[in-house]
Amino acid sequence: MKGKWYKKIIWTLIGILALFFLFAIWYKYEYSMEAVEPYTVYTETLEEKLIIATQGSEFKNALVNRIIDHYKNDSVFIRVIDVSGLPQINTSHYSAILILHTWEYDKPPEVVARFITENEKDMDKFVVFSTSGEGDKRIQGVDGLAGESVLADVSVHSGQIIKKLESLLDR
Known about the structure:
By secondary structure, the protein is α/β, with parallel strands linked by helices. It folds into two domains: 31 residues; 128 residues, Flavodoxin domain (Rossmann fold, 3-Layer(aba) Sandwich). It is 38% helix and 19% strand. The protein has a six-stranded mixed beta sheet, with helices on one face.
């Protein structure tokens, strides 16, 4: 009789773990960001250079497009990459570094956190915008912006980002 009782508890625990594992897989699939194909705008010979490291989502793509449109008549070289490409970036080559990322499992992507930590000396070049469900999550120690991924708010958030970029790009 006791053996059956323990077996039920073990199978119940295995079932709970399996459900948790399936939920984690579903969550990652449902809320993970798409990869961004790198591209450039204007020529790299321009003095002012902006790199935008982002994750692929409708909201972040809209932010990037607004920022590019804002600088379309200016002499600013813009390079757009996926956040996974941050380790290959030499921060000394850029006047401003914009990072757009989503909080995943209640923390920023590891590659973003590591890049910021490894490049603390150039922190004054960074503009970081974090998205999360509540819109209030920020990387500790970074003077960044945060918001929810709501398309209706793209103009507000892009305005905030551009204001910060303006102070970094000599125009």
